[in-house]
Amino acid sequence: MKLTLAVALLASASAFSPARFSTRAAARPTRVEALARVIEDPLPKVYVYDHCPFCVRVRLALGLKNVKHEVVFMGNDDVATPTKLVGKKVAPILEMPADSHVMGESLDIIAYFDEKERFGPVGLFKPASGRKDLKAWQKGLQETLRCLTRPRYMQTALPEFMQQDGKDYFVKGHQIPPYEKADWKSSLSMDEQWGLYNQALAETDKYLPDLNKGLAELEGLIFSEEFCTEGGLSYDDIDLWSRLRSITLVKGAVFPPKVTAYLKNLEKAGDVPLYFNMQV
Q: What would the DSSP string read from start to end of 180-213?
């Protein structure tokens, strides 16, 4: 199953101050500001899954650059479409009909648009800072988030999960802790896997305290309401925001004020909706 949605993306850019990876509330950096609209004919196509943070990276970047594009939501069990495009089942995938060009890998796709003048000012996104504190924060919540977000994807009407086959495909390939992927796929039946998904959802209260503690800690790691790292819009934001988006699906998650503002500012600038209005 494949749903196609033409998405008009409002975007942004910013003037950057020299990069120092402080999170102190010093002089406020320049806000993300709108760039001129870029509309090619035919439009670039981006093949994605809505829940996938790597796909969200590309959607957010194109929105921030104000490049109008077509979003093609693939069914999660659709193997034929990505295989025809790039030889295997992956996402995201960029197709440029005007150039007869197809490519995968989220960061490569973003670089493709950010390095060409035809898509607006080049170098909009500063390089990733390599901040270890953000990486450690993500790693510390990895298992908690798997237990909270994966079962919730199955409860929503996301386009890639509109049919049961798409949901089953996801469950089969995405384990619930403490299972590792190899054991999950080899030692459990589909019914047992679904049982563990349902159990994790039922045990939400068990995982929420760790999540909310982590979100409180993130408040101090984010530099401002516009950028997570001092110096301006960067690949740090592309990655972090795309991962935080999934957490907005969790009912009971408590987002501190700065984290909330950060999420909503980039939601508007990048024209990629958060999940606050569909929480489970």
A: -HHHHHHH--HHHHHHHHHHHHHTHHHHHHHHHH
**Alpha-carbon gap, residue 278 to 280, rounded angstroms:** 7
Q: What tens-digit pLDDT sequence spans the chain (280 residues)?
A: 444 433 333 333 333 232 333 333 334 445 677 799 999 999 999 999 999 999 999 999 999 999 999 999 999 999 999 999 999 999 999 999 999 999 999 999 999 999 999 999 999 999 999 999 999 999 999 999 999 999 999 999 999 999 999 999 999 999 999 999 999 999 999 999 999 999 999 999 999 999 999 999 999 999 999 999 999 999 999 999 999 999 999 999 999 999 999 999 999 999 999 999 999 9
Nearest to 247, CA basis, from 212, 198, 222:
212
Sheet holding 2-7, edge to edge: 2-7, 69-74, 45-48, 93-96, 101-104
- pTM (2 decimals)? 0.88
Contact between 262 and 228 (Cβ < 8 Å): yes
Distance CA 133, CA 192 (A): 36
Q: Under a CB-based contact definition with an 8 Å cutoff, are residues 14 and 230 in contact?
A: no
Taking every pair of Cα atoms in the chain, the longest distance, rounded to a whole number of angstroms, is 56
